[in-house]
Each structure stands twice: as structure tokens, then as C-alpha cells.
Amino acid sequence: MKNQFILLLLLIISATSFGQTSNEVIIPPFQDKYSEYVKKLEAGETAINYQDFRFSFIESEQFVVASGKSEEMDSLKKEMTVQMKASNSPEIIRITKQILSIDYTDMMAHKILKQTYKIIGDTTNAARYKTIQFGLLNSIVKNGDGQTCATAWPVIQVKEEYFVLQMVDAQLQEQSVDRKNGLCDRMEVKVEGKKKTYYFEITKVFEGYKKLGL
User: Fold this and answer.
1) What is the DSSP string of the chain?
2) Could you tell me the pTM of the whole model?
């Protein structure tokens, strides 16, 4: 009996350690739409409705889990920056997949993973994560033009706004909430020295806040 207990304990420790160091994305354990989408995408099934996928994250219990891991996410992103400066591709891949295990809608993680796979010559994975990155991005910027609150780009998290602004090479000058023509973030920016205003529809952001009790 004692030997069986020791063997069981070793198996648990081994499984836990593997989960912490594995280069694979961990599929959320929840029986919901978000978890099924992650499973499909990791299997290479990238022809999905990306807006529905993003919205499903807010509805999933994984959203609550991710919120509780905000400090861990910050640490992972800092470490990812360190490893990128060191051009340490294996560590970049490991860290980005840890980030995606927490929040698979993270466009920056997909972008960096795509770039890293391209650098090491893994064209299959580079293409897959590029498809996912732009699927997520296009589900925002191809749903409206971002020029008014009525035609604002729909986001589920504020970090999506900053990623979009980075992609259009915009420098944020001022941010405010517009409640007159819907519920939008009004972003005053500069692009190539010229002032512009972009609008992001943030109804889902507030749904997320409500789910978290904020």
C-alpha cells in the first residue's frame, strides 16, 4: 500500500511538472464554446467565426480564470520580452503558449509565436498562427470602420484596442468614454504626425467587468 501511494504521488508530481514546462497550449477543461474553439484551433482547424470565438471567451469560465492570473500574465510578458532580446526561440515559444493557455484570444502572443516559428523555419506553425492572429484582428477591424461610435470597432478587452492602435502605428494622445452615441472608447491618436480619432465599441468589455463583479 505504501509503495502504491508513493507511485501515485510521483505520477501526480510528474504530471504537474509536465504541465508547467510543456510547449503545448493547455486546452481549458470547461465544456463550453470557448474551450471547443481553442481545441479546434490548436488542431489546425482555423476556418472559424473569430468574432464568435472572441465573444465566447467573455462567456467562458476561462475568462474568470484568466482574470485571476493577471499578475502571472504580466510576468510572462516581461519574461517574453527578455527572451526576445536574447533571440531565445525555444523559450519564446514556451512562454507564448503559456500565455495562450490563459487567454487564447491574445493577439500579441499569436503575432510573436508566428514570427518565432518563421525565424526557426517552421512554416506550418508560422502560417497557422498568422491565420489565427489576422482572424482575430479582422474580426475587429472589418466590423465597422472605427471612425464614429456608431461604426466603432467591437472589442472584448481593452488590450485589443492597444493592439489595433499598434498595428496602425498610432500613438495614443488621449482616451475617453463616449456614452452619447452608444458605449465607446474614444481614442485621440497621432498617425505619422497627424491627429486622428478612433472609436472602439466596448459593450463586451463592460459585460466582462460585470461578470467579474467590478
Assistant:
1) -HHHHHHHHHHHHHHHHHHHH-SSPPPPSS-SHHHHHHHHHHTT---S-HHHHHHHHHHSHHHHHHHHTHHHHHHHHHHHHHHHHTT-HHHHHHHHHHHHHH-TT-HHHHHHHHHHHHHTT-HHHHHHHHHHHHHHHHHHHTSS-SSSSTTPEE-SSHHHHHHHHHHTTEEEEEEEEE-TTSSEEEEEEEETTEEEEEEEE-HHHHHHHHHTT-
2) 0.87
